[in-house]
Design brief:
- With 361 residues, the chain is an alpha/beta fold.
- Helices cover 25% and strands 24% of the residues.
- The chain is built from ten helices and 16 strands.
- The strands form three sheets. Strands 11-10-9-8-12-6-13-16-15 form a nine-stranded mixed sheet, sandwiched between helices. It has a five-stranded mixed sheet with strand order 2-1-3-4-5, sandwiched between helices.
- Helix 3 packs parallel to helix 4.
- It is elongated and about 75 Å long.
- The relative contact order is 0.13.
Length: 361
Amino acid sequence: MLEKENVSNIDNSKENIKFMHRCLQLAKLGRGTAQPNPMVGSVVVYNGEIIGEGYHHKCGQAHAEVNAINSVKDKTLLKNSTIYVNLEPCAHVGRTPACSTLIINSKIPRVVIGCVDSFDKVAGQGIQMLEKAGVDVEVGVLEQESWWLNRRFFTFHQKKRPYIILKWAETKDGFIDYDRSKEKPKAAWITNELSRAYVHKWRTEEPAFLVGTQTALKDNPQLNVRVWSGTVPLRVSVDREGVFPEDLHLLDDSQPTLIFTSELPTNKLNNTDFVLIDKSQSLEQQILDELYKREIQSLVVEGGQIVLDSFISANLWDEARVFTGDKIFKSGTNAPAFKYSISETYQLEDTELAFYYNVLG
């Protein structure tokens, strides 16, 4: 987070807050498409009125500030305007030109920023460039909200791993599955259709979903998007002993898939990659390192019990989303032992959804 002593001039006036809220609204439109870039929204204000706005749609495309400035019909107004943006404008040339340079060249005299970009290629350099050019810069308006929106991005760059979200469903009496050791019936649904729609929505927003070996074998999940619309995630799973059958959904090559295994298959697939496991090293860390190399900013760990417990015991999680349905199993597979305080709860008809956070803000 931005240290308070580095904030030059925080003006949390009603006007600044109003326009920064609009930046955050716009930024959220890039959820699921902006990665590996952050979600950024921007507005150009003249005489208390928004005359231009934009957000970052997709990696490799124009940044929010560019879209906001380009949307202003009368460019002569820019020299007397303020541009708001929830994240520090970039100062480097990457896939697109530097936004700080564009702001300076557009002769915009004032910039209001939500929070500093901790990415090492920015990290205050955009602010320095603007101030050196004589631009009046204000930093820290809705700082916490701005940081929180891009917590995946910040975690990825600060911890060199994806932002980790644990997700499971449990019954009222604390089970995530009933005993299927003697038979092989289909999984019993614990939650309702509304809850399942939320999961499919999340699959369009988070770039990778992980299931363990037993979940892959018992439930044969597709990990695709069926009751929502959007981009399908990277499917991730573990096949330590090379036991996955060829007809498993995860091996149907229908979408990007990553399998960690001790044996590489002889046949090659177009959308499916296999990574050899080093059994002398932490499997969880190997998964995270590989996803980091692939610029995957967030990972949802769906289960089952073994893989969830392994991430929890290693304290490798930032957020947990736990559904509690109205079913009673009386026996079966216990839900993870999770002794943390609930941050938020939502009622989805007969199912409760609880959020937990383990991320520093």
